[in-house]
Amino acid sequence: MSKGRALHFRSLRWWTDHFEEVVASLALVVVVLATSWGVITRYITAQPAAWAAEVSTVGFAWVVFFGSVACIKYRLHPAVDAPLSRLRGNLTRDHAPACRQHHHD
After folding, report:
1. What is the pLDDT of residue 105?
2. pLDDT tens for residues 27-82?
3. Residue 62 contacts by C-beta under 8 Å, 6 or more apart in sequence?
4. Is the pTM of this model over 0.70?
5. What's the sign of the alpha-carbon dihedral 10, 16, 19, 21?
6. Which residues, in sequence order, are CB contacts of 30 under 8 Å at separation 6+?
7. Which end of the chain is more exposed for a tag (fewer CB within 10 A), N or C?
8. Taken in order 48, 51, 57, 62, is the CA torsion positive or negative?
9. Domain range annotation of the chain
10. In whole angstroms, what is the distance from residue 99 CA to residue 93 CA?
11. Distances from the Cα of 29 to the Cα of 36, 48, 66, 73, 89, angstroms
């Protein structure tokens, strides 16, 4: 394989490996820009941008969904330890190890 083709393959591999983070990051940029534009048009011009709130809401949903996929990929999702620590008896002993198997220390 030629050096240029190998570099292209590594670049493509990086994009496919980090797709979730890229989409979540771009969506976060959209949320910040749309919210900023909405604030600027509300307080500086007489006509606020009505679409800014909708774009921010949709962008935030993308941040949440793609960000959670990225967190699961890296095993960074939170474990629910507080309710389990309050339970007593067999329920805690039987289910706590299964609930903590994905907890990243």
Report:
1. 46
2. 999 999 999 999 999 999 888 899 999 999 999 999 999 998 988 888 886 665 55
3. 23, 24, 27, 30
4. no
5. negative
6. 55, 56, 59, 62
7. C
8. negative
9. 3-74, 78-105
10. 11
11. 10, 20, 14, 22, 48
57 with 32: CB under 8 angstroms?
A: no
33 to each of 1, 11, 20, 29, 65, how far by Cα in Å? 42, 28, 20, 6, 19
Structure tokens at 66: 């793609």
Question: DSSP string covering the chain, please?
Answer: --HHHHHHHHHHHHHHHTHHHHHHHHHHHHHHHHHHHHHHHHHTSSS--THHHHHHHHHHHHHHHHHHHHHHHTT-SPP--HHHHH--THHHHHHHHHHHTT---
Q: Read off the tokens for 55.
A: 């774009």
